[in-house]
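In response to reviewer comment 3 from the previous cycle, which asked for concrete evidence that the modeling workflow produces usable outputs, we include below a single protein chain processed end to end. The sequence was submitted unchanged, and the resulting structure tokens are shown without manual editing.
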Amino acid sequence: MNERMAVVLARPAGGAAMMIAACALIAVTTLLAKALGRGFDGPALHPLQVSAGRFGFALLALLPLLAWQRPSFRGAAWPVHAVRVFCGWAGVSCLFAAAAAMPLADATAISFLSPLVTMLLAIPLLGERVGPWRWGAAGVALIGALVLIRPGSDAFQPAALIALAAALFMGMEAIAIKRLSGGEPPLRILAISNGMGVLIAAAAAVPVWIVPSPGQWGLMALLGVTMLTAQSLFIQAMKRGEASFVIPFFYSTLVFAAVYDFAVFGDAPTAVSAAGAGLIVAAALVLAWRENRRRA
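The workflow returned the following structure tokens.
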């Protein structure tokens, strides 16, 4: 009995550990994108080119597993996959662009507005009803975003609008993922996501493509493999523990991003940025809590 209890308790704990590991790797991808966008070891690469490298190398890393498992694509919801992939590519590209032009912690925090976007879009697209708690959380998140973006002030960062666009696209992607989550195997989702993503990203990168240095090729390969590993850990975390338990750990991405940015680029978050990020994360946690209560 004690061994069985230990196994039961270890599953959610393992899910939390996997989610934290996924967050650490997600922050690494934005750090790599920032280094490539600022011309590390070569010319500054356009965010669309960095995004193409991310999808291309992720697909290459996934091919051996696909050849081994040979997942079936019969019955796939291709229109929903297409919407999900386009929004995912656009969200990643915008986040990479913002990361190259502003502190990673700020760009990451603004991208955390995506649950708010998902909530708003779920009203007309999924027919969901939103109560006062969730509207209140949305208002707090909006205040946090305004603190970070600071429109009309000398501290206004135009790149923050790009991070805001990333949140919009990621929120729309989450709606598509909700539609897919009912009957699509995880490996099929990964395969279609990275396969279609390569086509979209490569076509968008052609006009801005420049020849990367050998070191930059290596960084893009690392970026693709790291993102694929983070996606796999995220899926496993969701399998091992309830979403209401593991999702709050996702916001540790902000901590990792701030630590990496300070260690590599010397960018430390200001008190104002920390306050804005705190409001957004607090609102997102309230949304996750209310989602759990609604399901219960």
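The chain has one domain: 2-295. We consider this sufficient to address the reviewer's concern, and the full set will be provided in the supplementary archive.
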